[in-house]
Amino acid sequence: MPHDHAHDDHAHSLLPSDPALRVKALETILVSKGLVDPAAMEVILDTYERKVGPHLGAALVARAWADPAFAAALSDNANAAMQALGISGRQGEHVVAVENTPATHNMVVCTLCSCYPWPLLGIPPGWYKSDAYRARAVREPRKVLAEFGVTLPAGQSVRVWDSTAEVRYLVIPMRPEGTEGWDQTRLAALVTRDSMIGTGLPHPADAP
Asked: Who has greater pLDDT, 19 or 166?
């Protein structure tokens, strides 16, 4: 109705510019209108702030780097390996781990929508859902990687994996040189979200 629409525009104009405060203000408005249950909202926010996200994917990668037996298990059955670390959840079913090697660099896209392993990587970035990325990642992956700042050696091929509702992919990046003897916590700090999508690389060992 016109009156309701005008009220919504007015409420929207009062939102603060700071992102965190803006989210909190939006939450307050939705709760006051009875559109969301505060308890359910808190559970959702807590889940995506603390219980899932790139730190879980990084822990998985770090263990694979440090433990060859676990790396083999991850390659054989990623979901079983995830469950061994207590990682599971919706949008994390049927995950396949693909390992980067000097010969092959893996890159993940979802050409139809934005299928993505949420329990391991958290909420997908905006660019992952964009039409441009979904179309160009398949047609010209090297150009797309270059735009992300990743230039691969001429002899390293690129393999693009198309994620679906049935199968989602996790890239296991190559372990950075100079990390021999590092424990898993230290290794995990080098793993970036983009490196687990294939559009980035891990931090080098000497990163500040």
From this structure: 166
